[in-house]
From TrEMBL:
<dbReference type="GO" id="GO:0052621">
    <property type="term" value="F:diguanylate cyclase activity"/>
</dbReference>
<keyword id="KW-0812">Transmembrane</keyword>
<feature type="transmembrane region" description="Helical">
    <location>
        <begin position="321"/>
        <end position="342"/>
    </location>
</feature>
<feature type="domain" description="GGDEF">
    <location>
        <begin position="444"/>
        <end position="576"/>
    </location>
</feature>
<keyword id="KW-0472">Membrane</keyword>
<feature type="transmembrane region" description="Helical">
    <location>
        <begin position="382"/>
        <end position="403"/>
    </location>
</feature>
<dbReference type="GO" id="GO:1902201">
    <property type="term" value="P:negative regulation of bacterial-type flagellum-dependent cell motility"/>
</dbReference>
<dbReference type="InterPro" id="IPR011623">
    <property type="entry name" value="7TMR_DISM_rcpt_extracell_dom1"/>
</dbReference>
<feature type="transmembrane region" description="Helical">
    <location>
        <begin position="193"/>
        <end position="216"/>
    </location>
</feature>
<dbReference type="InterPro" id="IPR043128">
    <property type="entry name" value="Rev_trsase/Diguanyl_cyclase"/>
</dbReference>
<feature type="transmembrane region" description="Helical">
    <location>
        <begin position="349"/>
        <end position="370"/>
    </location>
</feature>
<dbReference type="InterPro" id="IPR029787">
    <property type="entry name" value="Nucleotide_cyclase"/>
</dbReference>
<dbReference type="Pfam" id="PF07695">
    <property type="entry name" value="7TMR-DISM_7TM"/>
</dbReference>
<protein>
    <recommendedName>
        <fullName>diguanylate cyclase</fullName>
        <ecNumber>2.7.7.65</ecNumber>
    </recommendedName>
</protein>
<keyword id="KW-1133">Transmembrane helix</keyword>
<dbReference type="InterPro" id="IPR050469">
    <property type="entry name" value="Diguanylate_Cyclase"/>
</dbReference>
<feature type="transmembrane region" description="Helical">
    <location>
        <begin position="288"/>
        <end position="309"/>
    </location>
</feature>
Length: 593
């Protein structure tokens, strides 16, 4: 929209803005409600009772047959393989015996271990053979997605117990579930998971790429911190689900979860802190918490450096600090954004809506490590989906922020461009916009009207300056009403106005000017005690090639004086520019001539 019209429509824009803000408030409220419902989804999970399980910690010198014997004799603790269970991977690891229950799945089948963490798992096939596997393993021909899968040959009786060993590992053990499926069933669920995970990663990475582009284009670090956060969170999920290795086949990242994975966890919270500080405008809405949040954002990379330093003592310190710091930091972000939101930061609400489900799910996944919510095996997948959900919510928030900034800028521009008393364009803005218009097409006809109120001094003297101001406002409003939205109207000086009419010929311009002249008279504003009404004298000049705004105004002003001399309350048309004037303008436009 041209700048002049934008300013002119600013008043009606205010009403639209209020409607828009209410709609936004409603949208955010609904978003929060949806988020809350997402967090409160009942922990319903149906799992098939198709196996029983027994387990014990592995000891040095254990033999597989001995463990199977112990299981057969009922000397091992029992667990439900369909519920999430953590098996120790410190020391010598852990043995797990799975006993399929009838009805048995015969023929070729698949044992899958969901969310196994980064450790290695070995299946003993009962004939002295073993198959070892890990999420970042590229050896086996068949590899699951988001899970470890073992091919159970048809030759192994369906009722045979399966012996699995969780090998010793320095990485944290994760709660796992076990399942035996026929190949078609397994392939179907694997394809579903792949589609789900690919969609979540695609959303997060697309939003991160978009944020990076915006960071570069707008030179706004808020977008950069946001992109950094999303990339780190995607990396964390990529490690945890094994998506980086299968299907992405990023072999270079195999074995890096203890360093790069941990760094990604720490950096994601650090980036989230930096992002939230700017996004929720903590400096304005929660200034006391800004420094602690920034301190946390800077502290986390330091801990990461200690963790990857390779110096034992420092690694130990980092290892001790990292988890408590993560928990404290996450809570700090939550509290800071909640305070900012309550104090009026609209974008803090977006942050809360996106970040809270993720935080709750992360906390619930951690709780599963301690034997809580063992039925809810979809929680790790929900944490992945929450990442995508958060990416969408925060991207909408960032778009809203960009719009808000733009609207504020537009409003400031409108204020700077408009005349404080009458609300029409001021002289500087008129000159700029009119120069743009005249420069954009010389072939299009245009006319400039110069208005000067008659005997305005008398009105001021007799009725006071305030009455004079009211008259100026009334005249400006009347002129604005009469003109087309595309015509520019400006207050040029004290009681002088100018209008630039586009696409009119001389005859049309004279008709418009005459109509405006009559309109001012019809305002019935008395000038003095003798009952004379306020009138206006108008000079009209048609735009010629080589005309500048100044030359056009100058000719219209001269015509206006002629109207004054001829008795006021009338319109006079300016003569075409004299050759001297044209030559002067040509010289101005091209100083070398
Ligand atoms: N109330 C009010 N008066 C203003 C404002 N700006 C300029 N004026 C007054 O407008 C009057 C202009 O007077 P003149 O230039 O003598 O012109 P005039 O009285 O209209 O006489 P003619 O133009 O010859 O018809 C002066 O008295 C200014 O003080 C304003 O913002 N508000």
């Amino acid at each position: 929209m041209p700048r002049g019209i934008r300013i002119q429509s600013s008043i009606s824009g205010k009403a639209d803005e209020m409607v828009w803000q209410n709609a936004q408030r409603r949208f955010i409220r609904r978003l929060l409600q949806a988020t809350a419902s997402l967090c409160l989804i009942a922990a319903m999970h149906v799992h098939a009772d198709d196996m029983t399980g027994q387990w014990r910690e592995a000891r040095k010198g254990d033999r597989p047959e001995q463990v199977l014997d112990e299981a057969r004799n009922g000397r091992l603790p029992v667990f439900d393989p369909g519920r999430m269970q953590v098996f120790p991977t410190h020391g010598e690891g852990a043995w797990v015996v799975l006993r399929p229950l009838p009805p048995w799945v015969s023929g070729e089948r698949v044992l899958s271990i969901r969310s196994p963490g980064m450790g290695r798992v070995t299946l003993y096939d009962g004939r002295g053979g073993t198959i070892g596997m890990a999420l970042d393993d590229f050896g086996p021909a068949v590899h699951g997605h988001g899970r470890l899968v073992f091919d159970i040959p048809a030759s192994l009786p369906a009722s045979s117990p399966l012996l699995v060993k969780f090998e010793p590992s320095s990485t944290l053990s994760a709660p796992v579930t076990f399942r035996i499926d026929t190949w078609p069933d397994y392939l179907r669920s694997d394809a579903q998971w792949l589609a789900f995970a690919a969609a979540c990663f695609a959303v997060m990475l697309a939003m991160a790429a978009m944020a990076l582009c915006f960071a570069l284009m707008l030179r706004d670090m808020t977008f950069a911190w946001y992109a950094g956060y999303l990339l780190c969170y995607s990396l964390i999920q990529g490690y945890q689900t094994g998506f980086l290795f299968h299907p992405l086949e990023l072999k270079a990242l195999a074995g890096t979860s203890a360093t790069l994975g941990v760094a990604a966890v720490a950096m994601s919270v650090s980036f989230a802190a930096l992002f939230m500080t700017r996004f929720a405008v903590l400096s304005e809405f929660a200034p006391l918490l800004r420094m602690p949040v920034l301190g946390f954002a800077i502290g986390m990379p330091v801990v990461v450096l200690l963790r990857v330093s390779g110096i034992d003592a420092l690694v130990q310190v980092a290892q001790t600090l990292i988890n408590p710091l993560l928990i404290l930091g996450a809570l700090l972000l939550l509290v800071a954004s909640a305070i900012a939101a309550v104090r009026g930061s609209r974008h803090a609400w977006f942050f809360l809506a996106g970040w809270t489900p993720l935080l709750i799910l992360t906390a619930l996944c951690s709780a599963q490590m301690n034997g809580v919510l063992t039925d809810v095996s979809w929680l790790p997948d929900a944490a992945l989906a929450a990442g995508a959900f958060e990416a969408i919510v925060l991207s909408i928030g960032l778009a809203d922020r960009a719009l808000t900034i733009r609207r504020d800028r537009d409003r400031a521009r409108v204020l700077a461009d408009s005349d404080a008393l009458t609300g029409v364009l001021n002289r500087r803005a008129f000159t700029e916009v009119a120069t743009e218009i005249l420069g954009s097409g010389t072939s299009r006809p245009a006319a400039l009207l110069f208005f000067d109120l008659d005997r305005f001094k008398e009105l001021n003297d007799c009725q006071g300056h305030a009455a004079g101001d009211r008259a100026l406002v009334a005249v400006a409003a009347a002129l604005r009403m009469e003109l087309r939205p595309s015509d520019l109207l400006a207050r040029y000086g004290g009681e002088e106005f100018v209008a630039l009419l586009q696409g009119v010929d001389r005859e049309n311009a004279m008709q418009v000017a005459t109509r405006l002249c009559r309109r001012v008279h019809r305002l019935d504003l008395e000038v003095g005690p003798n009952g004379a009404l306020l009138t206006v004298s108008i000079g009209m000049a048609m735009r010629h090639a080589n005309d500048t705004v100044d030359s056009l105004v100058e000719r219209a002003d001269t015509a206006m004086y002629a109207a004054k001399l001829a008795g006021r309350n009338r319109v006079m048309s300016a003569a075409p520019p004299t050759p001297v004037l044209v030559r002067k303008n040509e010289a101005k436009a091209n100083p070398s001539v």
